[in-house]
Amino acid sequence: VRDGTALSVRDLTVSYGRAVRALHGVSLQVPRGEVVAVLGANGAGKTTLMRAISGVLRFHGGLVTGGHISCAEARLTKAPPHRIVAAGVVQAPEGRRVFGRMTVEENLRAGGFHAPAEVRKRVFDLFPILAERRTQRASLLSGGEQQMLAMGRALMARPKVLLLDEPTLGLAPKMAEHIARTVAEINRQGTSVLLVEQNAALALRLSNYAYVLDVGEVALEGPSAELAASDEVRRRYLGVS
Ligand code: ATP
């Protein structure tokens, strides 16, 4: 791993069972302090990539069959999820799966039981609504608020690299914009971010660098501003003809 690289994925191949090869030799880097986006259509392998990095792939019937994942000093390929979190790579719960019957406060504590008070304060500063609702059951929050809770819960573990899987999926444009601004603020405070998004316009706006996945391979990569200006990307991913 190069100095200054927060997360590195090299030649990653992933299969589900014998029949489905979901990733074929994917390589990507998240430089320290940056936001990197992964774009791609349904089924391109974005969720699989996130599962492999966060170590939960095996719980979905998948297997890393080749390649390497590492962050700063640690090799993370096939490591169990708790070791990956301890190394500083933390995913906001997939599909914003918060614990519905637990309160906001209990959900946050589940994310970082030993988190010092300043970490809790950071989360409440980023998401004041979570402070207001702290004694309320998570299931009573709106979709956008549950996404905030999922992100807040991940931040309680003090990530060096925050993994975000479709944080704006299903949200109204105004809420999506709010989440996007918060991701930018989290990054400004020093956390590197790997962002998977179907909303390509938003992802390219938020990120420094982006990769386009297509049926399990990196089809295209480059600085986000360049991708956003490319005719092919505009036509295929931004819906501009
Ligand atoms: P989406 O945005 O629809 O979630 P994606 O880009 O995240 O798409 P993946 O969900 O990673 O794509 O899927 C990549 C490929 O792996 C697809 O062919 C999919 O059918 C397959 N796949 C995903 N999860 C499993 C699983 N648990 N078992 C078998 N095949 C799977």
From TrEMBL:
Keyword Nucleotide-binding annotated: yes
Pfam families documented for this protein: ABC_tran
Keyword Nucleotide-binding: yes
Superkingdom to which the source organism belongs: Bacteria
GO biological process: L-amino acid transport
GO MF terms, alphabetically ordered: ATP binding; ATP hydrolysis activity; branched-chain amino acid transmembrane transporter activity
Positions of the ABC transporter domain: 7-240
CDD domains: ABC_TM1139_LivF_branched
Protein keywords: Amino-acid transport, ATP-binding, Nucleotide-binding, Transport
PANTHER family the record matches: HIGH-AFFINITY BRANCHED-CHAIN AMINO ACID TRANSPORT ATP-BINDING PROTEIN LIVF (PTHR43820:SF4)
Family that this chain belongs to: Belongs to the ABC transporter superfamily.
Protein name: Amino acid/amide ABC transporter ATP-binding protein 2 (HAAT family)
